[in-house]
Write a structure and sequence with these properties.
Elements: H1 10-33, H2 45-74, H3 81-99, H4 101-104, H5 106-130, H6 139-159, H7 164-194, H8 208-226, H9 231-249, H10 260-284, H11 291-318, H12 327-345, H13 353-380
Length: 390
């Protein structure tokens, strides 16, 4: 049975709706922060904002990426049509429930919201097991980690406890995912590009340093999640920052700036060691290095930039367009990098914090609206690209 193009592959509808939600959620939060709106008072504006960008926006991007990759891993047909639409309806219901928690109750909102990641875990697990692709079951550990963090968020909200631990756990899961998946995609795509242009200077292959860096990052993330202050977390985060920065340099990203579609992967990944360096600074000098700078280096920076990098590349590649960044795509990257950098700097500048937050929010919204405007048509149609079009 045929289905609309937007439901023919998960990346199409997931990336488009995720971008639209990211573009809407941040202005809603800024209006709440300014006192113009009273948004999601069951959780508080800050917690709602964090929840929706982690478990709303990012979770949907992961869904789109996962269900686009799984057919390549298993050789099975993609999840599409009514089953894919059912997942999207569950996701939309969760966004409505989080906004309406004051009316329907946080318990009901929790059940509805948790349904999406639970469904993603179940469907993805079924597809991987049916395809006997056992080694990629490990990817589902991150989805389960996110689901557990979301459950902890709702449990804390229902119990009147602080939500910080659950949110740090979720951020930790996303940073671990970028460390693993981004650390696979970035050097691989760079190698493929450099082979044709500079074959004598290729990214270093995966080796012991990479394994140690990943292990150090996971241990440091666990320490930061449980106890973000103190010398132990500072030491672990410092080691992770150094190893991940050396790992990034070994991928030779400085050779890719002629192609923004590749360079953005390296720039996005750079926010991972930056976040660890800031985490180490905050653990030792909490008054000098704000916790918000750590969080947003990883969320607005690593998550925001890397997800847009993957969304643009996957959308171009899977719709038959040339894998090169045109003016619109480059503008998307400049906007999201501006948003991330301003959001990291804002906590350090008390007198300028509000203007910087507004500027960061405007740049963030612009990046995702540009994505929706420039990529929406290709995601919603099966039109063949013209020669030279990108």
């Amino acid at each position: 049975m045929s289905c609309p193009p937007v439901l023919s592959h998960a990346f199409r509808i997931c990336f488009l709706l995720a971008a639209l939600w990211a573009a809407l959620a941040v202005p809603l939060w800024l209006l709440t922060y300014a006192g113009t709106l009273n948004l999601a008072d069951s959780y508080g504006g800050v917690a709602w904002h964090a929840h929706e960008l982690i478990f709303g926006y990012t979770a949907l991007v992961i869904c789109g990426f996962l269900f686009t990759a799984i057919p390549n891993w298993t050789g099975r047909l993609p999840v599409k049509g009514p089953p894919l639409m059912a997942l999207i309806v569950i996701w939309i219901a969760g966004r409505i429930a989080m906004l309406a928690a004051g009316s329907i109750g946080p318990g009901v909102a929790a059940v509805i919201d948790l349904g999406f990641l639970a469904a993603v875990l179940a469907v993805a697990g079924r597809e991987i097991v049916a395809g006997k692709n056992w080694r990629n079951l490990r990817v589902l550990v991150i989805v389960f980690w996110l689901l557990a963090a979301n459950a902890a968020f709702h449990a804390a909200a229902l119990g009147g406890a602080l939500l910080d631990l659950a949110l740090r756990g979720a951020v930790g899961a996303l940073v671990a995912l970028i460390t693993l998946i981004g650390g696979r995609l970035t050097p691989s795509f760079t190698r493929n590009w450099l082979v044709k242009r500079d074959p004598d200077r290729l990214p270093a292959p995966f080796g012991p340093l990479d394994g140690v860096a990943i292990g150090a990052a996971v241990v440091a993330l666990l320490a930061w999640t449980l106890a973000p202050d103190g010398p132990l977390t500072a030491a672990l985060a410092s080691v992770a920052a150094l190893l991940l920065f050396v790992r990034l340099l070994r991928w030779r990203g400085y050779l890719t700036f002629a192609e923004p579609l590749l360079a953005i992967l390296h720039l996005g990944y750079a926010f991972v060691p930056l976040g660890f360096a800031l985490a180490a600074g905050h653990a030792l000098w909490p008054d000098a290095v704000p916790a918000a700078a750590v969080i947003h280096a990883w969320t607005a920076g690593a998550v925001g930039v890397m997800t847009l990098a993957v969304m643009t590349r996957a959308s171009l590649g899977h719709t038959g367009h040339a894998l090169t960044a045109g003016a619109a795509t480059t503008s998307i990257y400049l906007a999201v990098l501006t948003a991330a950098l301003l959001r990291v700097v804002a906590p350090f500048a008390a007198e300028w914090q509000h203007p910087l937050l507004n500027a960061s929010g405007a740049a963030w919204t612009l990046a995702f609206l540009l994505f929706a405007a420039s990529y929406g048509p290709m995601l919603c149609t099966t039109r063949k690209p013209k020669r030279g079009e990108s």
